[in-house]
Amino acid sequence: MIIVTGATGLLGRQIVERLLTRLPAAQVGVSVRDPGKARAFADQGVRVRHGDFADPGSLAHAFEGATQVLIVSIDAMGDEAVRRHRAAIDAAVTAGARRVLYTSHMAAGASSHFQPCRDHAATEEALRACGVPFTSLRNGFYASTVVRFLSQAMRSDQIALPADGPVSWTAHEDLADAAAAILADEGRFDGPTPPLTAAQALTFDDVAAIAGDVTGRTVTRAVTPDDRFRWQLTEHGVPDEYAGQLIDIFVAARAGEFATVDPALAGLLGHEPTPLSSVVRKHLPGA
């Protein structure tokens, strides 16, 4: 049985939906903190069990009978994130899974400017040491991040953000399709995958042009100094630590950490990845 964690989240839910187009529901299980939110999967015949990375005992039950476990990285940073990912890896191995998979990031590295990428690198080290084969899905930077930035910017038709660099913004839908393909074809990748990215790396100058094309309005790009942007975030109630992490996205982008473009995702999908313009058109309010 293939077990997917975090199956009520944005990425995990789509992975399970796509996995069900490839495999019988009886071969799929989900581990979720709130089984009630996964009722739609249970109604289709998917095994739904409570599992919480902070409670290893719950994971033993949730992962029972697993042949593969896909660990969807949690929405946390630093030691807490790595500790909980390690708990899930250990539980998967103890349950007898013959492969452990993990949603990592294209820029995973111990020296990254972006904390989550350092966390992914530490989790990948735990995977290498776990004693069973693993696959680390080196996902491109989620394109939904652009939509969140644009949702604020479009109030003034100006994208005022720190200086950036090119980023291969990648759609959740495509990454979910890729994960399902890899799970259904066990062993297709051993260790980290190539970067699973869109076909282009774009700057926020490009994003402004896309937003203008999509909305039919004139959208400009302005550069906000890092310290001023951080102050603006905290003035609007964003915790200082989180504000710093948002700044680090731009610092890492300026260093070229997210600029890689690779054909691996297109190969898994059987077609070109979704362009950012399509993501913006679909998800930007008022587009």
Keywords for this structure?
287 residues, Rossmann fold, seven-stranded parallel sheet, globular
Describe the structure.
This protein is an alpha/beta fold and 287 residues long. It has a domain at 2-138 and 172-192: NAD(P)-binding Rossmann-like Domain (Rossmann fold). It has twelve helices and nine strands. Strands 3-2-1-4-5-6-8 form a seven-stranded parallel sheet, with helices on both faces. Helix 1 (10-19) packs across helix 7, helix 8 (204-215) packs across helix 12 and helix 9 (226-235) runs antiparallel to helix 10. The radius of gyration is 19 Å and the shape is globular. The model has no long low-confidence stretch (mean pLDDT 95).
Rg is 19 Å
Specify the CATH architecture of the domain at 2-138 and 172-192: 3-Layer(aba) Sandwich
* Largest sheet report: 7 strands, parallel
Oligomer: single chain
Average of pLDDT: 95
Query: Tell me, what is the CATH class of the domain at 2-138 and 172-192?
Result: Alpha Beta
Structural class: alpha/beta
- The total count of helices amounts to 12
Residue stretches low in confidence (pLDDT < 50, at least 5 long) are none
**CATH fold description of the domain at 2-138 and 172-192:** Rossmann fold
Summarize the structure.
The protein has a domain at 2-138 and 172-192: NAD(P)-binding Rossmann-like Domain (Rossmann fold), CATH 3.40.50.
Helices and strands, with pairings:
Elements: E1 2-5, H1 10-19, E2 28-32, H2 39-43, E3 47-50, H3 56-62, E4 68-71, H4 79-94, E5 99-105, H5 115-128, E6 134-139, H6 144-153, E7 158-161, H7 172-184, E8 191-192, H8 204-215, E9 220-223, H9 226-235, H10 240-254, H11 264-269, H12 276-283
Parallel strand pairs: 1-2, 1-4, 2-3, 4-5, 5-6, 6-8, 7-9
Helix pairs in contact: 1-7, 4-5, 8-12, 9-10
